[in-house]
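From the thread on structure requests for the teaching lab: each student submitted one protein with a one-line request. Submission from student K.M.:

"Model Cytochrome bc1 complex cytochrome c subunit from Agrococcus carbonis, tokens only."
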Amino acid sequence: MGLNTLASRKKTGRRHPLASAALLIIGLVAAGGASAAVGTVANAQPAQSSPHAQQLTEQDGAELFRANCASCHGMNAEGTEHGTSLIGVGAASVDFQVMTGRMPMAFQGPQALQREPQFTQEQSDAMGDWIASLAPGPERPAEEWLDTSQVTDEELAEGGALFRINCAMCHNVAGAGGALTEGKFAPHLRDIDAAHIYEAMQTGPQNMPVFNDNNISPEQKRQIIAYLHYLDENPSVGGFDLGALGPVSEGLFIWIFGLGGLVGVAVWLTSRPN
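Reply posted by the TA:
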């Protein structure tokens, strides 16, 4: 009987019902770790300032471009099958893409991801000047449109209205960002440099529409920047933001806590003796 008992305890060779789920979880964790490692490696070498950086010229910018960007955009920025033409995009587009670290891209994907810039500001300016020399395009914004220190409360309110009308459908009313189609997304707008906000409106990077001066004037762009900086300093103006996901989290909160509380009160009342 002892041998029969031992034999009955031997494994049958059948897989445990939770084995597949465990393998799936392990695979997802491993894939996420590998993606994070790639991003860390890509961000491991941020740009360092050079003592001679301020002496860079358009020709220096051309050489930097051809050494780092020509494989996708062509030797003369004419574009290739791997990258679009940059003729006519202007210095503003170069500054936005390079100084937010979106270019050069770390890897091909639905859209370029923000990371540490790989070039100094002086190197980016030199490349932008060379790109601007090829054809007219949006220029880097003047400092007067980036200075929000003198924006009045009325102008700040106008900036909030402009943002909700033109930007909130993608970036969320609180600037928290949101998902788009085909794996793309609208990034969050918290703690973003004023120049990059202005340049994004000017150039319409990736999935964003272009808001030129005929659509939104420089004064209005400054008001929008002031509103976004106001959100940086006051991240939850109306109270607990519930993740700033809008009606999704708010509706879930009402269903769980609001209706749940009403049901609890009703049960308590009906359980009381007459």
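TA comment: Residues 247-271 form the longest helix (25 residues). The domain at 141-235 is CATH 1.10.760.10 (Cytochrome Bc1 Complex; Chain D, domain 2).
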